[in-house]
Predict the structure.
Amino acid sequence: MFQVTRKMLWKGTKTGLQTTWELGKVVVPTAMVVAIFRASGFLDTITAFFAPYMGFFGLSGEAAVVLFSGYFVNLYAAAGSIMALNLTISEITICAVMLGFCHSLLVELPISQKAGSPLGYIFLIRLACSLAVGWLLGVVLP
């Protein structure tokens, strides 16, 4: 029979708090930056510029913030951006799938290159897959 011990609870609590702290160090500042951009009006400028391009994927201009933070920083930064924006469920779904193919480029591309992969090829494959699946979902999801 499985028995939960005090040691297991302490270890789980400690690990959970450490993980929350690590995630919070990225998610909270990202959400704050997006909120500041919104309050200053800068977010409107960004979203207006990207809105025509995001339309190809069935996304609003605000989704560009999510994609760029996920592409260049990491998925937790994208999650922080999502928290600060008013995206629909379908927009969040499309962004999540797109970022599943292409994320954390500034960290992962140099690692791929050190592992012997051609940098340009890996970048193009990941980005092309992300854009293709985004377009496909943008057509399929209303």
